[in-house]
Known about the structure:
Elements lengths: L1 E7 L4 H14 L4 E7 L4 H7 L5 E4 L2 E3 L6 H7 L2
Amino acid sequence: MNHIQLLMRKGCHLCEEMRTIIEMAAWETEIEVTEIDIEKNEELLQRYMLEIPVVIINGEELDYRSINLSSLRERLQ
């Protein structure tokens, strides 16, 4: 099973878009998703304040700008 961590914050439209992409991919393959609100963790907030959403797939941090449904499907196979 693949594990995805989505680092996000409330009110972030890019985070919502990434959540939707992940949900679409989950229809096709088994994925365990953990959403982490960076505003609840000072260290994460300082590190990722302007770089959200952050997507970590099976321990590998990805640049969200390079992720779309097709690229996500490929990584999850």
